[in-house]
Amino acid sequence: MGDLTCNSQMGSIIVMGDLMIDISAPLESLEALSHARGSDLPSSITFDVGGSAANTASWLAAAGHSTYLLGAVGSDSMGETIESRLSQPNLHLKLQQFSEHPTGTCIVITESTGERTMIPSAGANAHLSIDQLFNLWAQIPGPRHLHVSGYALFHETAGATTLVAMQRARSLGMSISFDPSAHTLVSIHSDRIRTALALADILLANEQEATALAQILLGQPALEAETGVLDLAGKLRGLLCAESIDPVAVITLGPRGAIATSSTTEAVPASEVAVAQMRSTTGAGDAFNAGFLGSWLTGAAVVPALEAGVTLASQALSRVGASPYALD
């Protein structure tokens, strides 16, 4: 079984981070967009709720886990859309509304291969203060785990608030998981990310994020072989909380599944992602996180938790939209 102290009594899960309205545009490729520069390129544009934290919370709630989504939206129609669409069983919204900042938005370009490129505008997500955090936290009964989306660290005000939330969770004996979220932003926010890792019990990173963490925080050279990924998970585990009973470093490997290291499990591979037709990679990592956490926090060992993560990621890959509540 997982060794975190909260496993035997699940309690509620807090997910903290970004809530967005995704504006999705499917295209043949980014090259096609480049060729159309200065002209038109028609697409079937859709609008839906997104954001890594919102997606992870949605998948957790859909799997039956009592989940509290803690974040910020604008006092606008997009914020109303988020609150309406995420009013779902097991999903409890604790959101700060800002009249002076709009709800976050993200342009998502999805290529025919399923790969996606995102252009975000954080809006209200960047402005959650420490006082507002404590007001929202006081409304959450019996939390046992905090999951943090790295996007919350990428802004001055919200970044400081997020680290305070992690420190509070630590002081309350809660377990903490952290997803770096964007490999391209690791170097810019390396100090906050290092601090967040030192407060976390579980790292949930994709291969690009793990490589960036190793290069910037550990001085690790670029990976050259699959064995490098296995070694990397062990090294990243060393960045996690020294007070943790059994820190776990998880690295997702796209269609190749995932690996993890803990004190009792070294570089265990999960099965490959099984999906007949990949429609979009948007939200697949968030779904994996939800599957892994939902299993691990209820007492599963690392391997079954990895498998649970891969199962949910496969579901996400087979649909358009980042959450189980997306308009597919």
Core attributes:
single chain; 328 residues; alpha/beta; UDP-N-acetylmuramoyl-L-alanine:D-glutamate ligase; 10 helices; 34% helix
- Low-confidence regions: 1-9
The largest sheet is: 9 strands, mixed
What percent strand?
15-25%
Number of helices: 10
What is the tally of beta strands? 13
Mean pLDDT: 86
Q: Structural class of the helix and strand makeup?
A: alpha/beta
Number of domains: 1
Percentage of residues assigned to helices: 25-40%
Short description:
This protein has helices spanning 30-35, 52-62, 77-85, 130-137, 156-171, 190-199, 207-217, 226-237, 284-296, 302-317; strands spanning 12-16, 20-26, 46-50, 67-74, 91-98, 104-110, 116-121, 143-149, 175-179, 202-206, 248-252, 258-261, 268-269. The chain is of the alpha/beta class.
Topology at a glance:
Layout: E1 12-16, E2 20-26, H1 30-35, E3 46-50, H2 52-62, E4 67-74, H3 77-85, E5 91-98, E6 104-110, E7 116-121, H4 130-137, E8 143-149, H5 156-171, E9 175-179, H6 190-199, E10 202-206, H7 207-217, H8 226-237, E11 248-252, E12 258-261, E13 268-269, H9 284-296, H10 302-317
Describe this structure in words.
The chain contains 10 helices and 13 strands. Helix 7 (207-217) crosses helix 8 (226-237) and helix 9 runs antiparallel to helix 10 (302-317). It has helices spanning 30-35, 52-62, 77-85, 130-137, 156-171, 190-199, 207-217, 226-237, 284-296, 302-317, and strands at residues 12-16, 20-26, 46-50, 67-74, 91-98, 104-110, 116-121, 143-149, 175-179, 202-206, 248-252, 258-261, 268-269. It starts with 11 loop residues before the first strand and ends in an 11-residue tail after the last helix. It has a 9-stranded mixed sheet, sandwiched between helices. The chain has a 4-stranded mixed sheet with strand order 3-2-6-7. With 328 residues, it is α/β, with parallel strands linked by helices. 34% of the residues lie in helices and 23% in strands. The protein has a single domain (12-19, 51-105, 117-317), classed as Ribokinase (UDP-N-acetylmuramoyl-L-alanine:D-glutamate ligase, 3-Layer(aba) Sandwich).
